[in-house]
Amino acid sequence: MVIHKALAADHDVTVAETTRRGHASRLAQGAAAEGADAVVVLGGDGTLNEAANGLAGTDTALGVLPGGSTNVFARTLEIPNDPIEATATLLEALSRRAFRRVGLGSVNGRFFLFHTGVGFDAAVVSQVERRSGIKRYAGHPLYVYASLTTWFRHYDRTRPRFAVHLPGGVVVDDAYFALCFNTNPYTYLGNTALHVSPDATFERALVMFTLRSLSLPTILSVAGSALRSGRLARGHRHTDYRTDLDEVRVRGHGPFPYQVDGDYLGEVEELVFRHHPDVLRLVVP
Q1: Tens of pLDDT, residues 95-128
Q2: For the residues 17-40, what does the mean pLDDT come to?
Q3: Which residues, other chains included, contact 196 with Cβ-Cβ below 8 Å and sequence gap of 6+?
Q4: Quick one: 199 exposed, middle or buried, by C-beta within 10 A (0-12, 13-18, 19+)?
Q5: For residue 222, what is the domain's CATH number?
Q6: What's the domain range around 83?
Q7: Statement to judge: residues 155 and 252 lie in one domain
Q8: Cα→Cα distances 5→47, 79, 95, Å
Q9: Phi, psi at residue 81, to the nearest 5°?
Q10: Tens digit of pLDDT for each residue in 180-190?
Q11: pLDDT of residue 83
């Protein structure tokens, strides 16, 4: 493999392939226990999330090479979306020992790199994962298709699904869809970033964006704003936007779906979000 040869030219490299859910986390934990300087992940956001969970709280750094269909976290770090170009960027960062401690969010004890989606967003991810065989080749069109079919057929829009409990006793009790951010942007549509949370950075605590309606005018207005700066989405009368949150609780009006860094995790009745500063060592370009 070209990438392996490039990395091995100046570094002692061991290659391991993941074979099942959770495998990347265990591989990363093992590498950290053996004192590795870095674990470099060639994969999608789900694999990166697992590796980050294995490395959080250790001195072993996470290096990122894009290998998925969307590669949100890699692109957030301004890493080239081509794996070969990204390898050159990574090697240059390793030569400078460009390591940085960053904060992560967690939800029910699982760390997330960029966001957790609750409600409608998670239902869309669930529909995408049902077509995982074509996800890599039709990623962005598939997400658009899944969003439409979920809105029309696969998500109950007749009632709010959960309540968001914020600091100071503030409760948003009519939520259909929420996103808890550790970074911005939310995702990418082709080469276009969708911006909702410019206040979400590694240096600050979490951001919560809550949608209180799934009417078509609201969805179109928020989506259109996200294609630009997201300012109108944050100030929309059917949204709630909160920044610098150390802890948030989401309690369901019955079970509701959620996803973490693009990985669908099923339905729950409560989620607890927390911010963990400086918990992950990251290789940065």
Answers
A1: 999 999 999 999 999 999 999 999 999 999 999 8
A2: 95
A3: 179, 181, 184, 185, 186, 209, 226, 230, 233, 234
A4: middle
A5: 2.60.200.40
A6: 2-103
A7: yes
A8: 22, 20, 16
A9: -80, -10
A10: 999 999 998 88
A11: 94
pTM score:
0.94
Beta-sheet pairing, 38-43 with 162-165: unpaired
| Contact between residue 161 and residue 172 where contact means Cβ atoms under 8 Å apart | no
What is the Cα 238 distance to its own chain's centre? 24
Q: How far apart are CA 26 and CA 54, in angstroms?
A: 6
Amino acid at residue number 189: L
pLDDT higher than 90, residue 43:
yes
Any residues with CB less than 8 A from the CB of 243 and at least 6 apart, and which? 197, 199, 200, 204, 205, 207
Q: Are residues 63 and 123 in the same domain?
A: no
Look at residues 103, 118, 134 and tell me which one is the last residue of a structural domain: 103
- pLDDT mean over 76-104: 95
Please report, as a single letter, which amino acid is at residue 128: V
